[in-house]
Specification:
Length: 398
């Protein structure tokens, strides 16, 4: 990778996040206004103080007017971005680079999605571009379901053991989400219930799959040297890495569904930008894209949280639990929140905002916040053909 990064050049000084769920009485405008108002208030600024806006949305708007109309902005540049399930993270990445470049003193990134009213139960709500007919036609659940037996076969994990590992990941995320007032699903779910739930695709059951939700999250960004004009507890951007795969997995006979090369590459670039040499000991917490439980399992290894072939043991040992050595998805993840595509990436940053500033409620506060670094990750697409984002923020310069 050739990315130079913008370490310690940009700071997040305000954030906001709505409750995620079935918001039948609210539209996208309502959700966007709620999250941006929270973010602006926490930074102590007004909408007119912001120089430029970025909005990430896949289905809830087609231009910058997605923001300028409900916020009634006057003569402000607003850019709409979309990049599969990394859309919210892409909004923040673009806003951060704009501030780092010196083009703007401040920027606001917001992600929003209103999915439930549309009737669609997944990502794609618009027509697909024409293809040559060779792409896969399986559901997302079916494609990620292939990862579990592939991993088991490669590393000698039997079907029953793999079922326990995947259920343990789901149990962990629901345990965390039950303690989060903004989560859509706020109930602990027992291992027996998870293992006995109806099958969805392959060996994946209902509780192995993330849900659908409406929601919005937003962040105010300024130059790092200006951060303390807005808050005494800013978060500094350490790394923003993004990789778009070339969809070669389908045709590559060596690809075996036990890893995601785009995630490994994005993680490697992010660690180089941030100066992280041992993520397992240096990262205080991570928010990762748990669209399906096998995805979270593979992500542990792709991001260097566990050695290849060993993450399943770490899951059972509680390494990634709320009280573990490296908590993953302490807010409950996509499993507890659902996945409003444009908002999820920024929702992840919101959890790092709470945890590293010491604002997370006591019942789900991480144990090693003193490490001072938090990671967020998104994937978009399917095994062998995806985009991947990895971001790292910290509460200290240097």
């Amino acid at each position: 990778m050739s990315s130079h990064g913008i370490k310690d050049q940009v700071a997040i000084v305000g954030m906001g996040c709505t409750k995620f769920g079935e918001h039948w009485s609210k539209n996208a405008d309502d959700l966007l206004i709620e999250s941006t108002t929270q973010a602006l208030n926490s930074a102590g600024v007004t909408k007119q103080d912001i120089d430029a806006y970025w909005v990430g949305t896949a289905m809830s708007g087609m231009s910058g007017m997605t923001v300028s109309r409900p916020l009634q902005l006057h003569n402000k540049p607003v850019t709409r971005v979309e990049n599969f399930c990394a859309t919210g993270s892409e909004a923040l990445r673009n806003a951060a680079y704009a501030v780092a470049s010196g083009a703007y003193d401040s920027a606001l990134a917001v992600g929003v999605e209103k999915v439930k009213d549309s009737g669609y139960q997944g990502l794609v709500g618009a027509g697909k571009t024409p293809t040559d007919g060779t792409n896969r036609t399986l559901t997302a659940a079916a494609m990620f379901a292939m990862c579990a037996p592939a991993y088991g076969n490669r590393y000698g994990v039997g079907d029953d053991q793999m079922r326990e590992v995947l259920a343990r990941i789901s149990w962990k995320n629901h345990y965390n989400g039950a303690r989060n007032e903004r989560a859509q699903f706020r109930k602990e779910v027992s291992m027996d219930t998870i293992c006995g739930a109806p099958l969805m695709a392959g060996g994946l059951r209902v509780f192995d799959c993330s849900g659908v939700a409406d929601g919005s999250a937003a962040a105010v960004l300024v130059r790092a040297e200006d951060a303390h004009q807005y808050t005494d507890r800013p978060l500094y951007v350490k790394a923003l890495a993004f990789v778009a795969g070339n969809a070669s997995g389908n045709a590559d006979p060596d690809y075996d569904y036990t890893y995601f090369p785009e995630i490994e590459a994005a993680g490697r670039d992010a660690y180089a930008q941030a100066g992280v040499t041992d993520p397992r000991s240096q990262i205080a917490m991570a928010e990762v894209h748990d669209c399906f439980t096998p995805a979270e399992l593979l992500i542990y290894e792709d991001l260097g949280f566990a050695e290849r072939g060993s993450a399943w043991k770490e899951v059972l040992a509680g390494t990634f639990d709320l009280a573990g050595d490296l908590p993953v998805n302490p807010d409950g993840g996509l499993k507890s929140f659902g996945h409003p595509v444009g908002a999820s990436g920024l929702r992840m940053f919101f959890e790092t905002w709470l945890q590293l500033r010491g604002d997370a409620p006591e019942e789900r506060r991480i144990a090693h916040a003193d490490r001072g670094l938090a990671l967020t990750h998104n994937l978009g697409g399917y095994p062998g053909e995806m985009v991947s984002f990895v971001g790292i923020v910290g509460n200290e310069l240097g």
